[in-house]
Every structure is written in structure tokens, then in C-alpha cells.
Request: fold
Amino acid sequence: MVHTDDDGDGVTARTLPEAEFAFPGPLRDALVAAVLTGRKTSTTSLLVEYTITGEPLPVVGERQAVVDSCGNRVAVIETVAVDQVPLRQVPLQHAVDEGEGHETLAQWRADHERFWHGEDMRQSLGDTTFTVDDGTMVVLERFRLVGTAASDQ
Reply:
């Protein structure tokens, strides 16, 4: 188990909503590893993803179970800040805090555009020609690591 019911509310990692970074595979594995080491403390999502899936936007104070590529719940994170901005207004510090080694917004944006324009994302959105531009609304989420599978052993 990743998270014990430390505040008596009956919520454990098994009952938390899932936090999935990217799609299962090497990128997700790298992002989960960055969360587990504390290098990754922020993430960016397309607002349209929430519209299409009907999933609620992240809420400050909400906890989620981080899921690896095998579907294992390996950590618990807590949202500490949420903002919606056009893609052109993503701050450099947010990009750096995503823990992927980006030192400039240009690097960060190129990698994210490659992901958002990829076949998996376009299929997920149901739009084979989906593209982002400066005005595309994104959701910036900042979180803190609450616990890991290793910390409970």
C-alpha cells in the first residue's frame, strides 16, 4: 500500500483517483520516476482533455494515486496549485519543475507539442488533425509528493 489512512478519513491509495502522466510506456515511466525522486512537481494538461472526458479539473488539496505503466499505484501526490493559461503564458519555472530537464521554454514547448501532436493524443481527443497554438488553453498543476510505495515498507 502506498498511503495509509493517516488523517482518519478512510481514504487510501486504493480509493484515490488516479494520476496518469502521459500514456503507458517509456515516457510515463520516466515521468513517474521523476515524481518518485521529487524532480517532478508540476504537470501541464490540455484543457480540452477535461472537456472531452468530462473529468473534473484538479482541485487544490486533492490527493491522487500516481499510476505507473503497469497500472500499479506507486505514489500519492497532493495538488497544491492549479491555473489555466494560454500556452504562450506558461512560466519557465513551471516548465523546469516538470522535471524533464528542460532549461528553456522553447525546449519544453517542442517536447510537449511533439507529445500533443502525437498519434496517441490525437486518438484520445478523437481528432486526427489536432494541433496546439499560442492560444491553446492549458491546465498547470503543481503538486507535492505525499508518499511512495518504498516509504510504506
